[in-house]
Amino acid sequence: MIDDDKKAAAVAAVAEVRDGMLVGLGTGSTAAFAIRTLGERVALGLQIRAVVTSEASGKLARELGIEILDFAAIAQVDLTIDGADEIDARCFAIKGAGGAMLREKIVAASSARMVVIADGSKRVDRIGAAKLPVEVLPFASAYVMRALTDTGAAPVIRHNYRTDQGNLVVDCHFATLEDPRATATTLAAIPGILGHGLFLDEVDAAYIATSGVVTRLERTGASD
Ligand code: 5RP
Prior knowledge:
Blueprint (H helix, E strand, L loop, with lengths): L1 H13 L7 E4 L3 H15 L5 E4 L2 H9 L3 E2 L8 E6 L3 E2 L5 E2 L6 H9 L1 E9 L12 E5 L4 H10 L5 E2 L10 E5 L7 H9 L4 E4 L1 E2 L5 E6 L2 E6 L6
Parallel strand pairs: 1-2, 1-4, 2-3, 4-7, 7-13
Antiparallel strand pairs: 5-6, 6-12, 8-10, 8-11, 9-10, 13-14
The site of ribulose-5-phosphate (5RP) has 18 residues, from helix 2 and helix 4.
């Protein structure tokens, strides 16, 4: 069962959490398993505080008794645990099917360690088959769609969807993603694009569970 694997990966990652930590909580169904597991540990006396990457994760965490701080006042997080849509051996990830990639990337960047949790279906040889979500300022939507089309991104505006910040998500599908760093640079240079789901430097490790067996992947060094 995929849910059992999501939970197994989440439990393995939450085992890294120690008393006193400030923990970043990701978004999505796998991250929700981590939040629930963390909630169980908090109920047993674990002393942590957390920041969240979405309103949905914040609601769940609060319901479970986890103390949530306003990230606007936080410069450094100890450990962030989040899901992914694809993750490869380089610890390159595509995120954002759940639309929270902008906050997720900011929280990940602020974290001393960022760990992805996933079931085995997310593990790929090289990232690139998943849609790449881009957060777009509504004011810039027509211009950004034109610019993305020019890059060969085959952009599609996510229907009836706004991020927690009130922005649009445009899902892109590149024919190939041979050079993800070049693609990230291209996207970052388009005015009106506020963020995207390519996580090339943020992920330090991943716990990936397949048929109940959890494998840990650690970033080994500089990757291209
Ligand atoms: C949200 C994300 C999610 O972490 C990602 O989409 C994985 O979600 P799920 O665990 O539900 O498959 O990046 O923006």
